[in-house]
Amino acid sequence: MRGLLRNQAALLLAVGGLYLLATVLAGTFLNVYLWKSRQNFTMIGWFTVAQQIAVGLSFWLGGKWVKEHNKMNALRLGIAVSGFFYLLVLWLRGDAVHYIWPLGLILGLSIGFYWLAFNIVFFEITEAGNRDFFNGWMGLLGSLTGIVGPWVSGVLISHWQGERGYRIVFILSLCIYGVAAVLSFGLEKRPRGGTYLWLEPWRELSRKESPWRPAAAALMFQGVREGVFSFLIGLLVYIAAREESKLGQFALITSAVSLISYYAAGKWFKPGTRFKGMLAGSLLLVAFILPLLWKVNYTTLLIMGIGTSLCIPLYMLPMTSTSFDLMGVSEESAAKRVELVVLRELSLMTGRLIGLFMFIAVLSVNQSPQAVTLLMLLLGTAPLGGWLVLRRLLKQGGGA
């Protein structure tokens, strides 16, 4: 049985790796593609808002399908809709900026359905003792795809300048999504989980002693930073360098560093080190933003990117593993794993939307480099808030 679970985990990692590769190939340059048509930070911000709303809704509404029916079909639908999104972008070309909301909603639906199913299957085929190990492998795959994907995209776009390069990259991503979808049929159908409880996320948070209250708050803090940094860093690198190849180079370097750090974290990180590890990671994430206060250029952005890649596992592994461990503390919580994954994602979505609304509000008034940098520093302190609210759970999961 354990051998079968390991084989399924390896196959899930393979599907996840291909999905990540297709996503970073096209996704790294998606916001640049939109920016070149209309140079407006708030437009990109609203595009991301639309994505996050759709992600949250697809998690909540799709939870019933995933729990009561075939969760593998939800995973495949997420991959298929991702491909459909890039077909639309290819068809719309430069007019894509006029359809920011529908495009953002479609992309968000694809992300939501895929990651909802992926997270549930991931929980079912791992245990508390090996979850940090598999999280480390997912981070490793993310780093590997982050090395290969953006660099290849940057070379292709630079070689075939203009629209043609982007079209080649988007078509290549479509093909890889197709391979991931085919490979997913090797994943065994998972057992159904009973009746879906629509309001369980809110009921869980209403319980005064629920460990999910601090966990949800920590996830919101994670989302505050994540919602903006997920697109802003790449956009700033392109604006500073004015070359897609430079953005590909940036992603290659930072992902190579991340590969090493996730490998080390996956090998040596244990539940007992989460408390100190997350604190150190949170402080370092803030520290590596400080070079941008001096000047925002390719060099300072690269310093920040390398530093972030080095320390991000210290922050992310405790965050991810702690929330998944809470799903398995009892038979009752394990039976509600779908609803708890939904709760986890809704918490992240709420934080991301808070960060994005702050970003849009500030940049609607002032788009100067100083305003952008100070806003990044403010949002960058959010992980410290996550550690503060989660520190008791981290101590319970392992000594300080």
TrEMBL record:
Keyword Transmembrane assigned: yes
Gene3D superfamilies cross-referenced by the UniProt entry: MFS general substrate transporter like domains
Cited Pfam families: MFS_1 (PF07690)
Keywords: Membrane, Transmembrane, Transmembrane helix
A GO cellular component annotation in the UniProt record: plasma membrane
Molecular function in Gene Ontology: transmembrane transporter activity
Subcellular location as annotated: Cell membrane
Membrane topology: Multi-pass membrane protein
CDD domains referenced in this protein's UniProt entry, alphabetically: MFS (cd06174)
Membrane-crossing segments per the record: 42-62, 74-93, 99-125, 137-160, 166-187, 215-241, 247-265, 277-294, 300-317, 346-365, 371-390
Top-level taxonomic group: Bacteria
Protein name per its UniProtKB record: MFS transporter
